[in-house]
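Budget justification note: compute hours in this period were largely spent on complex prediction jobs such as the one shown. Inputs:
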Amino acid sequence: MLEIERLQVGYGEIRVLEGCSLHVDRGEIVALLGANGAGKTTLMRAISRLIDPIAGSISLEGEDITRASAAHVVDAGLAQVPEGRKLWPEMTVEDNLLLGAFARRARPQTAASLAEVYAIFPRVKERRRQIAGTLSGGEQQMVAIARGLMSQPSLLMLDEPSLGLAPIIVAEVFASIRKINASGTTVFLVEQNVAGALELASRGYVLETGRIVMEGSREQLLGSEIVRKAYLGL
Amino acid sequence: MQDTLATLISALLAAGLYATMSYGLALIYGVLKVINLANAGVLMLGAYVTWWMWDAFHVDPLLAPIVVLPLFFLFGIVLERVAVRRVIEQEPIVSLLLLFGVWLILQNIAYAIWTGDTRSIETPFIESTFKLGGIQLAWPRVYVFVAGALTLAVLQLFLTKTQFGRAIRAVSQDREAARLAGIDVERIYAVAFGIGIALSAFAGSLLSLLFPFGPDFGQALQLKSFCIVVLGGLDSFVGVAFGAILLSLAEAFGLRYMAASLQNLISFVLLVVVLIAFPKGIAGIIRSLRRV
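Corresponding output:
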């Protein structure tokens, strides 16, 4: 579904990713783990075509999107829920969601998508007339995920969905991610919360200072020295 | 009492005009984060086009917006595509200088085509007045006020009820989130700039009904627009309308106690006071109330 090969990305002189290769298959939940500053968000931004890679390639369902426009990538079925939610703070929750269906592929089904995301997030439905900037962090995260789903993605990328949330809310958010995956959407998840991410994901990668240092199944990662020492504190 | 009422009505009518000439500035700043220093030039050209259609082709100036709005919308789009787009991501001073240059060019084009003579439009409607409870009012001023209020209503509907309008607001609130939703941000820039320029030219067309003008027209108004937009909080149209009312009230009542030549002083004092006391403008105050 998503295939990344030897991707190099940088800002100006600074190289952030030094040749990352990874793949996400249809139906999976894959986690990308790593500390702050490892380059996880940079990778997400490159995949969503917010920044240009220096070298390497990105392909989505067999189509090369390395140089595609951000809008094209959304139309091809990829949605990203960015770090820090990035809702449009002065708009109502419902306006945020309606704009999530801006892409051509999603527009004709806007009403159906809206009913769908309200079914997944009843709390978002309760808040639909509220100004997005006035919601709590957990509610904002749910709106952000709901907005991502409004574009009818086949691959949903989530950048740090648990960041800054209370553990009980994190559990709720993770449960909804599992539900979304169960209904057929592939999920690619970036997380610092390694324990939580590995409960969700069946497979994962570890990114350290711009390089993939490890990949494997949940069990392999949980059993590995790198993950246990550096991320789980065991 | 009668006096106070007359001042109040006059201030309110002026507010409609002030608001209309500031919407374009606020829209362009809100979306592109660029301050349109060419605003005065566009006001002036809007007035000239209205006058010229009346003078040369006897087109009623009330019909001029039918031509002015699409013409300047296109002009705005071309200006954005050719010039403004290249400087959006750069330091603010670059776009300020660019648009200041555009203003100078527009001014000199006006000198070249229409000379420096002062122009004014005279039609029976423009000179007509009526009495309301003993207060003498000019029809064109009422007309301009209504046009300003309608503009606000149409803008609000467009920005909140249409998908394209929502996309414009999305770009102004978070560009990157807009890109992630598949919104073509560059296209939004061009359209928003086009609408902003069209609004300013429309305001200029309305101004030509009230004031005589020449190529330098609009300088003092430009500064008032800045004051209003700062009062209103730079990207809220309702805020801009409030800012316009506040400024015109301050001017109207201030003038009862000081010389008319000091009128511009009022707007600048107000500007400085607001920048120090409420740096986020009226919209910021409303917002913090709503959050409570």
